[in-house]
Amino acid sequence: MYNTLDIAQEYGIEERALKSYLIENKIPLVQDSGINEKYFQAVLSFIENTDNRIEQKLNKAHETFKYNSEQNKISIYQDDAISFLEKLPSNSVDLIVTDPAYSGMNNKLQLGKGRIVGNYSEKGKEKGKWFGEFEDSEENYTKFLTECKRVLKKSTGHIYIMFDSYSLLSLGSIVRQYFDVKNLITWDKVNIGMGHYFRRRHEYIIFATNGNTRKIKNRKFPDVWRFKRIHNSEYPTQKPVEVFQAMIHASAEEGFTICDPFLGSGSSAIAAIKNNCNFIGCDISDKSLDISKSRISEYLKNNKDILQKNSMGVDDNIFWE
Ligand SMILES: C[S@@+](CC[C@H](N)C(=O)[O-])C[C@H]1O[C@@H](n2cnc3c(N)ncnc32)[C@H](O)[C@@H]1O
Fold it and tell me: Domain coordinates of the chain in residue numbers?
């Protein structure tokens, strides 16, 4: 037996609206608030179609940008990734695409005293690091994945998580405890980067599903993606919009809700808008929110991406022909 108040709180809907739906559909209530398990599927489809439930549940979070049009809704918040995900209703997001700020990689790069990637003291505020880090301990990562799993739609949800080589080796296997890992994608950045040994030219992306039922949209897509890296970006670690577009082309339909809890410069949001999807995201840093807000507003107003003027694709026909 389920309770209407518990369902309303868990899924971010109004109890009143749920009760009206039950009455309209002649679903009997036991002692005014109990729902028999056999009706749960019907209740879930009502929840899925309830507009604004994410907004309702997030009304206490610190929203910094919101846009609502007929095609899409875009909302970004300033928050820690885990605390933000905890505020989202269960079973509410179609697709997570994200690129966390792993602390391991930052620490590793710091060993080079900044020589490898430039002058840290100029780039960020905290202890000379580029940006606030996400503690990539097993315990913290487990919390993060638990929340990703909860908010992602069951059976149809897809998730893409980016990894550098260090974090892939330490955290990648944990993803399997939560999701069905389908691919380890290599993002080939075409041009080599910094490094004391072999010069870095790639990152990894784990693609996984939340249950097994929904496939990607096109079986022609390869698991090596060639998009040029962005040099001298205004926001450190800004990724090409095309990397996120490839994920969205493979895994989203128009109108899907896409979530990125490590927003950075907002490349994933721009990719979502280009594909007529809804977007919800957060970042902990002031700089990220400043930059992504103006980038998203400008794109919505003038269709112009102020941080990435040119396409970074080299064989982009595969993804968007
Ligand atoms: C690798 S960057 C993301 C870059 C982004 N994909 C882009 O294209 O610009 C990681 C981001 O995570 C943010 N971050 C670090 N710790 C965080 C936390 N605990 N919660 C949310 N965001 C965090 C950083 O401020 C940084 O903007």
Answer: 2-48, 53-320
